[in-house]
Amino acid sequence: MHRRQLIALTCATLCTAWALPASAQAFPNKPIKLVIAFPAGGPTDITMRALAEGASKVLGQPVIVDNKPGAGGSLPAQALQSAPADGYTLAQIPQSIFRLPYTTKMTWDPVKDISYVINVTGYAFGVVVPTASPFKSWADFVAYAKANPGKLSYGSTGNLTSPHLTMEHVAQKADIKLLHVPYKGSADLMQALLGGHLMAASDSTGFAPQVEAGKLRVLNTWGDKRLAKFSDAPTLKELGYDIVQNSPFGIGAPKNTPEAVVKRLHDAFKTAMEQPAYVDALHRYDMVPIYMSSAQYRQFAQDTFAREKTLIEQLGLSKPQ
To answer: What pLDDT is stored for residue 19 in this prediction?
Structure first.
């Protein structure tokens, strides 16, 4: 090969390499940030850290958890809107973000403006009261609320979260009025309940350690079946409410993240979901793996967005037009 031809071929090869999209180059080559919607110390934080550690081993780079609680769980998804679409900023996508466009003014679309990577789990929810509470059962709770409209205080992990809206849905069906007090996460909520600042709490099973320690009592749970750990507590369905809530959540990336990068992330987190450390972390809070592929998760987002509109309208929480 002539020297001139060799130089031309070398230049063409280099130009082609420089022109390759990021998805075709080595990914990842630096740490990845995973923003989650709840504070440190709660069930979401603990389980997602276990998942991140497992994914780090597959990806060969650290996956660093960044806690951004508040604003109804929307801050991680909001962070994706200004992040580069390169896969190095990821976010937990709680179900609450699919409600926000119906209740608040937003400049982005939770379905169209997120690249859905993988769904990983959901929550086990319930209502708890202090052990010293006069509410020995859900019937006691409802009777007091009926006799004292708007005076029975309960806390949740934030406005428009699943614990808040499901509790309001139940209250509507039970024909009772409650006093809602929002907190940033399970850790803060449990402190307030144990400190005597609330009469009850609706939460994921971040309350499990306090129940097992004899400090709290479970009045009901929200799954399709009773939880093995709290088998004495009836489900909402058993109490006559046709409601099941497990609020699946997963991981999203910025809109237009290259498909190859999304697949690499999906595969890494899918492998991490199968690791004993993650499964054990979920078991601690009666949570289970709920896997959805990228395509399945995107469809779930579309379906949930439509379904949440009906619930928001039913509860009278739609934003003024």
So the answer is: 39
Contacts of 81 (CB under 8 A, 6+ apart): 107, 108, 113, 254, 255
Distance CA 197, CA 189 (A): 10
Q: How far apart are CA 314 and CA 297, in angstroms?
A: 25
By three-state DSSP, how is residue 188 classified? Answer: helix
Q: Report the 3 state secondary structure along 69-106.
A: CCHHHCHHHHHHCCCCCCCCEEEEECHHHHCHHHHCCC
Kindly give, in sequence order, each residue whose CB lies less than 8 Å from that of residue 106, ignoring residues fewer than 6 positions away.
Answer: 100
Question: What integer pLDDT is reported at residue 320 of this predicted model?
Answer: 61
Instruction: Calculate ∠ Cα 236-156-141, nearest 5°.
Output: 50
Helix (H) or strand (E) holding 305: helix 294-314
Residue 20's pLDDT band (cuts 50, 70, 90): very low
C-beta separation of 178 from 15 below 8 A: no
Q: What are phi and psi of 85, to 5 degrees?
A: -85, 60
- Reported as a single tens digit per residue, the pLDDT across 87-106 is 999 999 999 899 889 988 88
Domains of the chain: 27-122+248-314 (3.40.190.150), 125-230 (3.40.190.10)
In 3-state terms, what secondary structure has residue 119? Answer: strand
- Tell if the pTM clears 0.90, that is, is over it: no
What letter does residue 319 receive in the DSSP assignment? P
Are 50 and 6 in contact by the 8 Å Cβ rule? The answer is no
| Strand intervals (E) in 104-199 | 114-121, 125-130, 153-156, 179-182
